[in-house]
Amino acid sequence: MSKIWLIAQREYLTRVRKKSFIIMSLLGPLITAAIFAVPVIIATMSDSGKVVAVADAGGLFTDKLPEAKDDISFTRVSADLPTAKAAFKKAKYDALLYVPKLDMANPNGFQVFSRKGLGMSLQRDIEQTVENAVEAQRLKKAGIDQALLNTMKADVDLQTISLSDDGERSSSTGVSTGVAYVCGFLIYMFIFIYGIQIMRGVMEEKTNRIVEVVISSVKPFELMMGKVLGIAGVGFTQLALWIVLSFGIMSAVTGSISPEKIAQKRVEQVNAAAGSTATVQAKETRKEGNEIIQALKSADINVALVAACFLFYFLGGYLFYGALFGAIGSAVDSETDTQQFMMPVTMPLVLTFVVSQAVLTTNPNGQVAVWMSMIPFTSPIAMMMRLPFGGVPMWQLAVSMLLLIAGFLGTIWLAGRIYRVGILMYGKKVTYGELSKWLFYKG
Amino acid sequence: MPFCAVKPILQVQDVRKQYANHTALDGVSLEVPEGSIFGLLGPNGAGKTSLIRIITQITGPDGGQILFRGEPLNPSHIGQIGYLPEERGLYKKMKVGEQLLYLAQLKGLSKADATTKIKKWLERFDIKTWADKNVEDLSKGMQQKVQFIATVLHDPALLILDEPFSGFDPINANLLKDEILRLRSEGTSIIFSTHRMESVEEMCDHIALINRSQKVLDGRVSDVRNAYRSQIYEVEGRGHLMITHPDFEELEQSKRENEHFRVLVKLHAGAKPNDLLRYLIGAGQVEVQAFREQIPSINEIFIRRVRETHPDYVPETDSLPA
């Protein structure tokens, strides 16, 4: 046991001290932060101040030009198309919208000129504007007031409440789905990254030819377990660093790019350019931000249970697969030979993740989801994707955990049998038949 | 060299090992006397490494048993055995000092104990400055020294060296030889395993020859040599030599150049070397300048012994002396 500890210590320290580990630890949260921050930043920067010139020969915008929206502003130019084109060429407009003489029943012949082709969103926005204007004209003709119409529009949000034995609990499917994906993805990623590290570590010892020196001092099983546990430690350290740093960076980021500040920035930008209704938008952005916080608060997720189970399945899944990755590493001489053995091992993992949307998050208590959360090959991810939705009976959780424990004891035993033969086997292409024989070799 | 009966440090008794499709060891028995250098010799694939892996408890035997100082071999003996495998290496990205500490601790040494021993050995090899270097920054020869230190750091009572000189450059090979002899003089028992028999025969006190999973011969080197005396004598001198006596057979490898000759003569029918000398002098035609017995090398003995049991045996080319 003390030797396993020694080996785990070495595996842990050599990895944690590596530059790649430090870089990954710092980069992980930055990437997380980027995922949150980039859309916000892009939203504040892109499409800023597109100006569309309107040559209104049809008189569609006689009363007033359309209001600026999404950073697109409109300006009037000569209604005569050739003159407008000339003006368009001289001035720095992004697009020229030509409105021909119109038949209101069948409006046609709108043209948009641009220098480099329009972006999808700009084209859509102009189309929308024209459609709105035509609709408004028609409504006016039919004698319907726009304001009256607006009061008739309805906007309904459903509040979802899960009805269970424990009574009514309001839940938020959106937030549950988010938590499910984050948990599932973290476990998936962790098993892959660190499972492959185990495999590489075993192969390194084998190709370095140090393995025989080491196993004349310790049992192959101790060497394997030390490696598996040491690398698990590395994974937990990385996870902890990510969580701590992510929170740090996120709070720093949200401090500087809070919705209020973004809104303010936008107001300044837009005011400088066209000056219009940006304040309304700013308010909306703020409302959105509040909604997310509200949802997180109102979502009834048993945080303690989910967190505890996450740690369990995180470790259990890693042990289950890690040992198998170690066995693969022992059986081959080079990375290219690993492919044939990697496939069947990683298949259930990939499969779980692929079907997660169709099966797990949409129907978290359906039959397939229940079965997948029981079988140790898929349970670490499947159960973690069910749990945030609630309604997993305690007995199912207990069975799933017991099966996973039995599962990883089984794979570790299996891997140990393959490992002790494999690490001393050089220059031999190993087949499945060969591997199955190794299981029954005597000491 | 002690002649009294020495207690064996290791007794291998009728050990068998079977792999999926071949027998690696087929009832091998041998004894390694305490404080001696024991040569485990045989061509590649004879079963030497299989036997060593059983002694180092990397694998277990399918049959038979092994006694270490009279006790059945068990994990408590691991700390008393040092093993330099044929397939050897070090962690490339680890510092020399850390690596030695790690390997010594795996052998059961305490951290403090290991640290003082590492210091002692680094000083002995005059490589103290390497302790903080990464292994990958060392030359091959330097790595070999570190490797050897890792093997002997825990003061093993039994040192097992599998093809110790393969991969060692001549300077390090000599250093290694000196260290091995020094360790023996301090009481360490050493097992040498090699297929290059000529490289160790001058160092070994005892040998065992293994061929095709079986032991074919063992004993003290001097006894083995005596048992396999060739009865061939080399004679050098001047004059026109003609051997016609039926007891003396001149072998083909003889050389004659003008007046000089160097011939190999085999004695038949119980003839003694003195008889040959008398015959040479009695003929009066020649002047004998040198007369010595052709001592068979262990390699030649091995080939002869194997031919006795397997007449069709063709030695592997790399088991022949260069």
UniProtKB/TrEMBL annotation, chain A:
Signal sequence region: none
Keywords annotated in UniProt: Cell membrane, Membrane, Transmembrane, Transmembrane helix
Cited SUPFAM superfamilies: Periplasmic binding protein-like II
Domain of life: Bacteria
Predominant location: membrane
Any coiled-coil regions, as ranges: none
Subcellular location(s) per record: Cell membrane
One Pfam family in the UniProt entry: ABC2_membrane_3
Parts of the chain that traverse the membrane: 21-42, 178-198, 239-257, 301-321, 341-361, 395-419
Occurrences of domain ABC-2 type transporter transmembrane (ranges): 19-415
Membrane-topology annotation of the record: Multi-pass membrane protein
PANTHER family: MEMBRANE COMPONENT OF ABC TRANSPORTER YHHJ-RELATED, MULTIDRUG ABC TRANSPORTER PERMEASE YBHS-RELATED
Name of the featured protein: ABC transporter permease
Organism: Hymenobacter guriensis
